[in-house]
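Exercise 7. Predict the structure of AAA domain-containing protein, putative AbiEii toxin, Type IV TA system from Stigmatella erecta.
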Amino acid sequence: MALRRALDPNWVTLNAFREYLASWKFYAGFDVGMASSIRRPVPTEPEPVLKEDGSNLSAVLAFLQVEHRDRWDELETHLRSAIPTFQSLSVKFRGGPGMTIGGWREEGIQGELTLADLSDGTLKFLCWATLCLSPRKPPLICMDEPELGLHPRVLPVLAGLMRQASAESQLLIATHSPYFLSQFGLDEIAVMKKVEGRAVFARPASNEALRQEIEELGSGELARLHISDELEVRS
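Solution. The predicted structure, encoded as tokens:
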């Protein structure tokens, strides 16, 4: 509340800090229900940032296609890696002046689909991939269990996209999935555990014996340690 009141133009530093905090995004999952906005035409935007519910996905796709063709091409490449039947993306201007919706072509399906036709998992993955490749990412992006609702096949691709996005923004990703966790290196992982009623942040990479064990046995050992709670205990 104090930051909201600090609107005096003379408080330049505090105002800048308030705006910086306000730009952080917290993605707890996308609304992909059949009646959701993400499945309908939406207004185009000049430089859109993906909303926390994903509702302006089509506007972000239109921005990528027109203004950042390299990112658009990269998005299609990653989609082909994750979804073998995927062919191409497009953007359709329909639903009224200035309205747009994403299009999708898939092997074995005649004609072009729109976002309204995609499965929940495909639409969620498209949201995460678009967010990671967007040139206008928030400075801090928090993601809560992004693996939920996704086919395990796409998780290595998603982890790679997130690693790439972390070069441009700070990403904090919460997961309970052993397989998804195993897509990351020990240096990229932090463990949150409760000690005497307090949440404690620990870096498992600081345990040299643990580091050597995972280097010798591979990423599957990281998943096993997470399942058994050893990762938490030894961090």
